[in-house]
Amino acid sequence: MDGKNYDTLENFEKIYGIKKFNQILKEFNFVRFVRNPIDRLISGYMHLCYYGVNNKNHYCFECDKNLTCFVTVLEKRLWQILNNEITLYNKDNEITYSYHFYPQTWHCEYYKLHNMFTYIKYNSSDKDSFSNSIAKLLKNFNISNNTLNFIYKKIYNVKTNHETLSKNETTTYKNILYNNSLLLQKVCSIYYYDFIKFDFEFPKECINSTNFLEIN
């Protein structure tokens, strides 16, 4: 398209009109990548809170790298947003928290547009499955083998600056979460519809919890 991002349908229609939008719906195929909610939370937490974007910018909800505090404040904040009881952060901070920590069903106007998308699950520890899903999709669109091979190489060889899977600290914080059943249940509750709508498996600690079942 024109290289711009549009956060809502209304913004797109305001600029280009509904006629062009309907034309795009007919001509384009839409793909969305989704991630296991817990993996996404821990990855974002390690990148933005524990390590920080730089020495000055740590997105921790003022919790000083305390995961329990972070999840508790996140849950409270999401409820406040739902109830229109909150003043949003400045634009850059709000986008950062939203992109990395708010439920994935809150993005891309999911409840309006979910039937338009093909969903591909991203798992940083299983790139074979991820690349196979992409290849299967692209082959349906007659993408050349040269292009597919280029994509494969990028998937396997390119790492983002904040890739955290192999770091010991990431394992430590994931263990902190899984060893705290109440905290894990809170995370499952926050991302309940991400698990359901994108068909991710709940941790058994959540499935077996009476408290979690009562909440949801």
From TrEMBL:
One of the GO biological process terms: positive regulation of response to oxidative stress
GO molecular function: chondroitin 4-sulfotransferase activity
Descriptive protein name: Sulfotransferase family-containing protein
Domain of life: Eukaryota
InterPro entries reported in the protein's UniProt record: Chst-1-like, Sulfotransferase
Pfam families referenced in this protein's UniProt entry, alphabetically: Sulfotransfer_2
Signal peptide start and end residues: none
Organism of this sequence: Strongyloides stercoralis
Cellular compartments per GO CC: membrane
